[in-house]
Structures are given as structure tokens and as C-alpha cells.
Amino acid sequence: MDPSHNFCMTRVIFNTNILLMVVACMSGCGSSSPDQISSATSQYQVANESAQSPESPNTEPDPSRGRTAADSSFEIAERERIEADSGGRASSSLNSTAGQSPQSSGDRSAAGASPEELLEQIGQIEQLVERGEIPGSTHQQQDATFGRMMNFRRAAAEEVLAQQAEPQQYVMAKLAKLDSINALVAIGAENAMPDFLSYSEELTGDDNEDVRLAGTKGKLEALRMLAGAGDQRARKDFDEYFAQCDASDNEKIRIAGIVARIDLLMQLTGVGDQRTLNEMGEYLDGLVDSENEEVRFTAINSKLAIFSQLIKADLPGARDEVEQFAGSLMDDSNAEIAEMARLTLFNLQMQDVDSGQQQDPASVIEALRELFETSPKTPTLFQSTQVAIGVLRQRGYQAESKQALQLIADAFKNSENQQLASEVDYLMLQAGLMDFYTQVNDVLDGEGNPESLVTSAGDMLASDSNANKLAFIVAENIVRAAQNLEYSGQVSVAKQLYDLIQLTYADHEDKQLSEAARQMIEKPLARIGMIGKPIELTGALSTGQPFDWDSYRGKVVLIDFWATFCQPCIEEIPNIRKNYEDFQELGFEVVGINIDQERDTAKQFIESEQIPWPNIVCDEAGSNPNAERYDVDSIPFVVLVGRDGNVAALHVRGSNLGHQIEKLLAQPEDKSDTTGSSPSG
After folding, report:
1. What is the pLDDT of residue 175?
2. Does residue 216 register a pLDDT over 80?
3. Contacts of 296 (CB under 8 A, 6+ apart)
4. pLDDT at residue 171, rounded to an integer
5. Which among 333, 355, 331 has a CA at the least distance from the CA of 342?
6. Mean pLDDT (whole number) for 455-473
7. Coil/strand/helix, residue 293
């Protein structure tokens, strides 16, 4: 670990809010997975029946890749912990949580290790963070893992400091400890802020210049965060310490003070403090021409961020000011400042396209070409220009959206930056998924070719060279598309896609991916497997009477899994009611399976809406065994049963329901039915 590294791996250097504002407002059109519509304790979802092109594929780091000799001891221990968690066990080598202090972390890997070994472990953790390889299959798991990584790193650094070590090793350990505490502050770990402030204060008096500077920056950062949160004492302490830094003979400390003050004033202007906004503007005007490039960059960056706030507030003249200011910097001798200016103007153009004020998608393509011709191929340029893909697609410019994606990929495909090259692979994957979702939507609209859709899905899975990562992202999106198709009534097409995933991963060399794929399609295949088989229903009705499924033998029965919190379910009730009234005398019945967790909620709704058919409600534990028995995890879920007692169709709703009922009623009655009674309920 280089002791001269930029202080705090959690610090965001390029923080142009005018760029972030556009990305935040325009980059997402929502997940294509079903939206959660019940309370936090409910497992059920409303199925989304329209396939949406994903804004970006699910690219969470994959914890299931094979181990290599380069894996850190933390990474191996963390994988073992994740694997053990599935069996209810915790790893003995590391069992701390994100919020625990290192004294209570239970870390045993640091004990007895030499300073060299400990610093090697610290370096390995930093490499994992830099590569974004945080173990965990969900964001929550990754957040918790990151906390454990920082506690692990902090404990290792403290172990170095407790031993006899070389002076440079002490320097590295002090910087690692401070940075780890700062990272714990960023994720809200308990007691991290007091530790951060006190340890930063301690390091401001260190003999090593790098450590003193890190301590100074840490103290300024801690006081800034506290003052920005409204702590008046911290604001006073910040002002006093800033004055001390500003009077220092050390230029780096003076610059650290200036940058911290800009950050604080920016934070306070963000909460609508007009006095601070004026103070900030005057302060920045005196710094934008600074001879120090770091100060100048920070001042210009912050001034553009203030302009973004003024634009959002729709203040007259703000747009003209930012265009004039950014335009004057497009050919600046500082490449980062020139890039920032060009991207600011580009994103203003994207804002106009997104709002509909500009309706010329060709101008966006031309702007992208100009950017790539005049700007260095930096990660910032790569990330910022991708907003064009989503904006163009959301405005209906599909061809130009694909063209923008291809331009970005071509510009960065030969990058020497491995991370960028990897992200280009993801971008090209996104292009393939966009085409795939176009086919899915065509099939949903009745205009596409299901066979071509299945072929495309197979080609995507087969052509990917990085089968352990990118292909599984494809698999996840194929399953999502299959669910959309299934719940829209395209059950046969959905089954072909589920079968394709099963075939691809059943004997996959990576057993964890194979198991993950199995779990993704287990319930969908079980649902579809109901077709042609008998179904049994049990439970108590909303009236309190026991439900008698035998009384429905020889009838055509619609089984409707629904809940009062499911708006699509409620919207379908009038259609079910009409068909119930039209066909009941001919042998058609309806049974509702309500999955509300409170019986009274269901009962009140059924009574108020005067629903005439029987409804089985939850048991005393708040669950409905019928939903669990048939793997129903998304609603609406509709099952149509023929006279023979076997499931004839799934997801039959809308105008198609009446046609299907007529077909089933035309079939001969089940000769085994001898009751001849009417259904009870």
C-alpha cells in the first residue's frame, strides 16, 4: 500500500452535481421485475406484465466465482461465511458485523501475524474494494460485507501498530486505520464518527508529513460532516481549525483547508441557506483563478454545482450563466476542467431532450462524436455519456439509443484500463438485452415470433465467453422476461425460456451458478407444471365455514389468487363477475384465494364489494396454504380448471377469459362426479 495514496478510498473526487442531477433524474425507468406492493412482511408481489428494456443489466459483483491463489484471506473467509450462513452457521475466522468495533469483531486472522503479513492482508482488501469485488449476492449482503472488510482492515492496522515494525509500516498502518474508520463513518457504523474525529486529531501531531496531512484532512472532514448536519459547536470548531490551516506554512494543509471549506459551504447551500449560498459564490469567485490546480478544480466544480441548484430552482438567467461559464472552460489547459465543462454542456443538452424541449436525436449523436474526438477516454466520460442511452430510449428514439450505445462502446473497447474494458463488455451485453426485450415486447403485443425469441435467448447464452458472470446476467433477464410472458398468458413461450435456462445450467461446471439457476426457475416450472394435473384446495372461507372442494367436481372453475393490496387483482374483479353471471348456470364457478395476512381485511372488502363467489382466507398464522402449495409468489395468479378436475390453463384474464370458459364448458362432464350438488360457500 502506497502511503502517498489519495486519502480515504470513500471520497468522491469528481462531484459535479449538475451531472449527477441529470443522471439521477433521467437514467432509470424502473426495474422490470415485479414491484413490491404489500407490506414489508409480505412475500407476494404484483406481476409486471410489460417487459421493459433494462436501463442496465444486473451487474452486482458475483461472489460465486472460483477461488484463485490471489484471493485475500478476507475474501476466502467471507465466502466461507456466506456459504455457512445458508446452513445457519457463522464463519469462525470472521464474524463481525458492519457496526461492530474491532475489539468486538471476533477477528482471529490478525492475531499472531507479522506486520508484513498484516499489511499484505490490508492491501488485498483495498484491491477487492478498488475492483468492486465485494462478496454478497444482494446489496444488503454487500453493505454488510463492506463493513466487515473495513473492521477487518482496521483491526489488522491496529495489530501492526501494537507490534515492533519499520517506520514506513507504521505510516501505512496509520493511514489504513484512519481510512477504515472513515469508511465506517460513511456506512453509518456505530461510534465511528467519534473514533474518526479523535484519531484524526491524534494524527495531526504525527512526525510523518503524510500522516499529519491525512490527520488534518480527517479532522476537517469530521468537523465538516458534523457542522453540515447542524452541529453549531462543530461549525465553530471547523471555522477555527480552517483559520489555523489557512495560516499554515504547509501548502498542502492550506489547500486541504480550502477544499474542506468549499465542501462545507456546498453542503450548507444544499439545504437552502441563502446566506451561505452568497458567501459560497463570493468565496469561489476568488478561487477559480487560483494557481493551485486542486483548488481551482474544486472551485470550478463547486461553482458548476451551485449553478445546477439555480437551474433546478428555475431562476432566470441561471441556464445562460452556466452555459457561458462552462463554454469558457471547454479548451482549458487543465484536461479535467475541460472535460468537466464539456460534460456539463452535454448533460444540459440531455436535459433538454429528456424534457422534450429538444427533439433532434441526431444532435445528440453528433455531440457524442465530438466529445469522443476532443476528450480523453476517462472513466468519467464513459459514465457520463451513458445517460444518452437511457434518455434517447425513454423519448422513443430507439435507433439513436442503440447508435449512442455503440459509439460509447467503440470509443472505449480498446481501453488499457481493465475496469473500463470490463464495463464495455457489460455495455455490449446491455445492447443485446435491449434487442431481446424488443422481441419480448413484440411477442407480448402479438406481433413477434416466439420461436425467434427463444432462439435469440439461446444465442445470447451460448455466445458469451464469460459464462460465470455475463451469461448469468443474461439468464436473470431471460427469466424476468419469461415471467412477464407467463403472467401475460404466453405460458408455452415462457416454459421454453425456463427450459432453456434449465438446460444451460443443469450440468454447469460452476455448481453455485447451477444452483442459483435452479432456484430461479424452480417455482415457475412448478407453476406451469400444474397444467394437466388435478388441483386440491383447502381452508376456511371468509364466512367461517370450511371449504369443500369436492362439491366443485364436474364444474369449470376459475381459481383467483388475489389480495386487497393488489390493484390489478381488484381491476379484474368486474370481468370475473361478468363471466360468473354469464356462465354460472352452465356449470362455471369461481373460487377466490385471498392472501391478505388479516382475515378481517379480506372479509370487509368481500362484503363491501358484494363478491358473490366463495373466498378462502388466511389461516390463524396469516398465510394461505393454497398459495404456498402451488408456489404462488406473484399476483394476480389465475388458474382455470376443467370439468375433469385438471388444470386447463393459467393466467387467463381479460377478454380471453370468456372464450376459454366457453371451450371448457363445451367439453363433456367428468363421469366420476356423482354428487350433483351445488358448491357450498
Report:
1. 96
2. yes
3. 287, 288, 289, 290, 334, 337
4. 96
5. 331
6. 71
7. helix
Cell numbers linked to 516: 442459483
Cell of 1: 500500500
Q: Which fold has domain 549-665?
A: Glutaredoxin (3.40.30)
Give the integer Cα–Cα distance in Å for 636 and 131: 41
Q: Are strands 647-650 and 588-594 parallel, antiparallel or unpaired?
A: unpaired
Return the pLDDT at 264. Answer: 87
| CA-wise closest residue to 29 among 48, 57, 53 | 53
CA distance 231 to 670: 77
Sign of the CA dihedral 339, 342, 344, 349?
A: negative
pLDDT at 144: 87
The span from the CA of 603 to the CA of 368, in Å, is 59
Query: Residue 54 pLDDT > 70, yes or no?
Result: no
* Residue 646, helix vs strand vs coil: strand
- What does the mean pLDDT of the chain come to? 80
Whether the Cβ atoms of residue 72 and residue 121 lie closer than 8 Å to each other: yes
pTM, full prediction: 0.53
CA–CA–CA angle 464, 469, 475 (5° rounding): 70
* pLDDT at position 71 over 50: no
3-state DSSP assignment of residue 136: coil
674, amino acid identity: T
Confidence of residue 419 (pLDDT cuts 50, 70, 90): confident
Short-list 93, 118, 96, CA closest to 108: 93
| Residue 531, helix vs strand vs coil | strand
Residue 25 in this model has a pLDDT that exceeds 80: no
CB 440 within 8 A of CB 452: no
Task: Give the containing element (helix H, strand E) for 132.
Answer: none
* Alpha helices (runs of H) in 67-208, residue ranges in sequence order: 73-85, 115-131, 139-161, 167-186, 192-203
Average pLDDT over residues 638-661: 93
- pLDDT level of residue 39 (50, 70, 90 thresholds): very low
CA 636 – CA 593 distance, rounded (Å): 11
What is the Cα–Cα distance from 446 to 654, expressed in whole angstroms? 15
Q: Which three cell numbers stand for residue 609?
A: 364489494
The reported pLDDT for the residue numbered 464 is 56
Q: Which of 135-149, 204-218, 551-565 has the lowest mean pLDDT?
A: 135-149
DSSP 355-411: HTS---HHHHHHHHHHHHHHS---HHHHHHHTHHHHHHHHTT-HHHHHHHHHHHHHH
Statement: residue 235 has pLDDT above 70? yes
Q: How far is CA 601 from the centre of its chain?
A: 33
Distance (Å) of CA 146 to CA 152, 186, 504, 669: 10, 11, 32, 62
Q: How far is CA 149 from CA 153, 215, 318, 449, in A?
A: 6, 22, 44, 49
Domain ranges of the chain: 549-665
Q: How far apart are CA 309 and CA 270, in angstroms?
A: 8
The Cα–Cα gap between 624 and 595 comes to: 6
Sequence-ordered list of residues with C-beta below 8 angstroms from that of 529, at least 6 positions apart, any chain: none
